[in-house]
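Go through this:
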Amino acid sequence: MSFLFHESTLKDQHILITGATGGIGYDTAKVAVQAGARVTITGRNEEKLNELKADCQDPDRVFLYKADLTSTEDREQLLTAAREQNGPITGLVNSAGIGGGDMVEKLSEDDLRKIMELNYFSLVQLSQAVYNQMKGVEKGAIVNISSLSGLRGTHGNSAYSASKFAVTGFTQAFAHEAIEHHIRVNAICPGYVDTEMGRNAIKSKGEREGRSYEEQLEIAKDGIPSGRLTSPVEVANTIVYLLSDAAENIVGESVKISGAASCANLIKKRAGVCSPLPVSTI
């Protein structure tokens, strides 16, 4: 896909991207740099962060900082280092997250806590800290990565879905407070995205239902009217648009990117019956 933004779209902006070692975060960093931003990338895999920095159009505008966002100390050190390197943060992309979980009767307390801790609690806590900085200049944009599963439940996906419902609800409520300070908060709600996490989700669903990855992938694509998974750069382009001044009156929205997937039209071509909605993948 060709580059869609002018190189000054995010000029003079400092964008912090969490989960930058994942598919969506990785491509968002690349697109944000191409759009003129200074970018801070963070994740737990320093080798992957270095790979991403080298892969960006202008590596000199990329600052990397390894951090565990579930750690209060790591979050504080990340924000201090990012501000010292690139100045005040004007845009935050909360892309860090994990999938997983199981059928309700098989869920462990550890699984539930792990998913909620990263997907929801650390997102809120980081957003609080960045928001307090943004209020000082009365300007900013925050984009949270939620999911189609954060708008409606899916079979065998209760823990992940609950965490993403929490992100969607937080986004909508937070947006009412933040816009009073000219700070826009929105969420992206993708369906299946062609990332490692997405492929793992398809594989796991296939294993539960006794199918190969290839068979389950075809079923997933059959359930999407566009006939394909979303690419991570398509999500990244939408994120950068929401960060830009072009989206200045888009506030508190949950933007779906799903190839037209919905309860009414998710029809399996082979079986001729309504198919469960796909889970989002980061």
